Amino acid sequence: MRPQWRRILIQALWGCIVIGSAVAGQTIASGNIDELIRSLSGKTDAASLNMLSRAHYAMEQWDNAIKNGEKAVDLSASNAEYHWWLGRAYGEKAASANPLSAASLAGKTRNQFEQAVKLDPSNVQARSDLAEYYTEAPSIMGGGLDKAREQASLMAKYDMAASHWIAFKIAEKQKQYDAAEQELQSAIQLAKDPAQYWMNLASFYRKRSRLEDMQKAIAQAIAQPGKSAEVYYNAASVLLQAGRDFPSALQYSKKYLDSGAMVEDAPAFRAHYLQGQIYEKLGDKSAAASEYKASIALASGFAPASKALGRVQ
User: Fold this and answer.
1) Residues in contact with 152: Cβ distance below 8 Å, sequence separation at least 6, in sequence order
2) What is the dihedral of CA 218, 188, 89, 9, to 10 degrees?
3) CA 174 to CA 152: how far, in whole Å?
4) Who's near 91: CB < 8 A, 6+ residues apart?
5) Secondary structure in 3-state letters for the chain
6) pLDDT 10s digits, 110-160
7) pTM as predicted
8) How far is CA 115 from the centre of its chain?
9) pLDDT (tens digit per residue) in 233-259
């Protein structure tokens, strides 16, 4: 579960062939990042550059993600999705940059999200990210809770559950934890896909050290009919972060990998890496090494897996 930014699949042009958004996203979700980058090498159209940006983003290679994302935006300035993806890359880079660079990158993040929403007001993911930026950033960087509340109000036109999600982030920021919990409960009641909001509630409980409630929320997410397979990945991730019930975490990570329904924000190579971390916690270094190798085989540039493999060998 990537904590800062949401997910979306867009339509992409690969060479001279237009492929649907599900196919484009699945190319990254399957984890064949090395193959994807080789296939796109030398392409200069905006959609291919956007796909390259997303491939590097998946591997946490923020500089390359930004470089290719900027080129895509320059070539297709009216494409809201390209602005949104570039904003995501700027945001992740800012999180690991020194304070001076972070301030500049934060402004670029905001600008890209604002442009994405301006170009496509119905883009729920971009609007959610913009609201989250307003919630977290200080006023000197263009943040502000009033701005976030405005986004929550505007979001209600497109997605009431997401509107409550924004309200949750605002209440959490103000340390109004009872109100924050209620906002997530409201989102669950209104959501077309309540499983994702049950997992958001589980993450909230983890941060509040309410671990029994966390596990109950995870169980509710798993029990939802028609849920995305990503719920299993997120459940495994939350349990790992909580340092709790590693056998169940392993079970969930295996179900995700076996599902064949990976998503772009939780591609196969990251799922193998997650499973390796769980095996480490269970004391099985051999199995952990196998998972890290599987991750690297799909995305050789994913540094966390390489570092982890060196640790267990």
Assistant:
1) 131, 163, 164, 166, 167, 170
2) 100
3) 16
4) 4, 5, 105, 106, 109, 129, 133
5) CCCCCCCCCCCEEECCEEECHHHHHHHHHCCCHHHHHHHHCCCCCHHHHHHHHHHHHHCCCHHHHHHHHHHHHHHCCCCHHHHHHHHHHHHHHHHCCCHHHHHHHHHHHHHHHHHHHHHCCCCHHHHHHHHHHHHHCCHHHCCCHHHHHHHHHHHCCCCHHHHHHHHHHHHHHCCCHHHHHHHHHHHHHHCCCHHHHHHHHHHHHHHCCCHHHHHHHHHHHHHCCCCCCHHHHHHHHHHHHHCCCHHHHHHHHHHHHHHCCCECCECHHHHHHHHHHHHHHCCCHHHHHHHHHHHHHHCCCCHHHHHHHHHHC
6) 999 999 999 999 999 999 999 999 999 999 999 999 999 999 999 999 999
7) 0.89
8) 20
9) 999 999 999 999 999 999 999 999 999
